[in-house]
Design brief:
It is built from 14 helices and 16 strands. By secondary structure, the chain is of the alpha/beta class. Helices cover about 40% and strands about 20% of the residues. α10 links the parallel β14 and β15. Strands 3-4-2-1-7-8-9-10 form an eight-stranded mixed β-sheet, sandwiched between helices. Strands 13-12-11-14-15-16 form a six-stranded parallel β-sheet, sandwiched between helices. The chain has a two-stranded antiparallel sheet with strand order 5-6. α2 crosses α3 and α3 crosses α4. The relative contact order is 0.13.
Length: about 375
């Protein structure tokens, strides 16, 4: 077992769910022969330490959120404390300015920084004013990084924020564990019966602006013989509830709320189509697509310029890719796949095959382990002390 510890500087961690959180958990739990810790903010609880599936999780109280950034003095303190370890690699998950602040403070007080791997999950897209203030600090951290992991070549090519640092970038597609073995046949039958045997269009994600669920709700008006199930919660949930009521779609569009880990695979399997109607490149990859593909459910997603989403779901192979923000394009794609049983079955098989070939946890962690190994020699020069 290597004596070099991997410390992930994340935003949140289980049981909080999201694309970044699932990636951090997948890497942390599947890296072999290494000690792994995760630093995370927690908006609900005080600071705590626990072990989840062999991973040490160090949580710090989030007092408030500013520009989607958790504010936690404890997180900064815990980050600095990890620098006492003389054999450590920091794996920093961005966007999240909090670890950026912690590492800048360490450098300001002349604490030697360890090897740094940055995992670039997304550009900062919505906070256009804030990026002008934050960019110097972000660029400082990018300049200190040994390696920058980008989840797709498409995203790297379209990222203005990474342009200066392309020589450090390595493409490592996100991988997840297949969830087909978690499908409960009885629950699948229950879900289908609950909605009268109608075709099921399933969507899942935080209820936030870039997910495009408003477009999906509007598209429901133009798709007959189907029910739209939207899982998850978030700041825009109330907006969706009002839309559904005003459009008279209560019998057609159902907000099912947070879905338990126990049930999520059965929802994917019960669905005839999984839909990811995202509208902004804040949706950099679309991890939920992978989960749907792993159970053989075809995907309808959007052609977001500069995002990896349309690369993950290959048009005509694992699903259909339509235009973002277009109710007409989305409803046409959904009708095409729902009304053609042969096409739907073909795309479902293609989705499962594409997942197995490109997006497994093993594929991802093998490449990341190679990155860690390449940085181990630099840990011997790191003393974690004042220069």
């Amino acid at each position: 077992m290597s004596n070099v510890e991997i410390v992930h500087l994340a935003k949140y961690y289980k049981p909080y769910s999201g694309g970044m959180e699932s990636v951090v958990a997948s890497i942390s739990e599947n890296i072999k022969n290494r000690s792994v810790s995760v630093l995370a903010s927690d908006p609900d609880n005080q600071q705590s330490n626990e072990v989840i599936n062999g991973v040490k999780v160090i949580r710090s109280k989030e007092y408030f959120s500013l520009f989607s950034t958790p504010m936690s003095p404890g997180y900064i303190f815990n980050s600095l404390r990890q620098l006492k370890n003389s054999a450590v690699i920091f794996h920093v998950h961005l966007p999240n300015p909090l670890p950026n602040i912690a590492l800048f403070l360490a450098s300001f007080f002349r604490v030697r920084l360890p090897p740094i791997v940055i995992h670039w999950h997304s550009d900062i897209v919505k906070q256009k004013r804030m990026i002008y203030l934050y960019r110097p600090l972000m660029n400082w951290l990018l300049s200190k990084a040994n390696v920058i992991i980008v989840t797709s070549k498409d995203y790297l090519d379209g990222s203005e924020q990474l342009r200066r640092f392309r020589s450090k970038c390595i493409v490592v597609p996100i991988g997840v564990d297949a969830i087909d073995g978690q499908v409960n046949a009885a629950k699948v039958s229950e879900f289908k019966a609950r909605y009268g045997g109608k075709k099921i269009i399933f969507a899942l994600g935080r209820h936030v602006y870039y997910k495009g669920f408003e477009v999906l709700i509007n598209a429901a008006k133009h798709v007959d013989g189907a029910v739209f199930l939207i899982g998850g919660k978030g700041p825009d949930t109330k907006i969706y509830e009002n839309m559904i009521s005003e459009l008279g779609l209560r019998d057609k569009v159902v907000l099912v709320g947070r879905i338990s880990d126990e049930d999520v695979a059965s929802y994917y399997a019960a669905a005839d189509v999984f839909c990811m109607p995202s509208i902004e490149k804040s949706e950099a990859f679309g991890v939920a697509q992978l989960e749907a593909m792993s159970v053989g459910t075809p995907v309808v997603s959007t052609r977001i310029v500069g995002s990896g989403v349309p690369w993950v779901n290959k048009d005509g192979e694992s699903g259909i890719v339509c235009e973002p923000k277009s109710v007409e394009s989305l409803s046409n794609a959904l009708r095409l796949i729902l009304e053609n049983d042969g096409l739907r079955e073909e795309l479902g098989v293609g989705a499962r095959c594409r997942f197995s070939a490109m997006f497994t946890t093993e594929n991802m962690t093998t490449k990341i382990e190679e990155i860690y190994a390449s940085l181990e020699s630099e840990c011997s020069a790191f003393e974690g002390c004042i220069r």
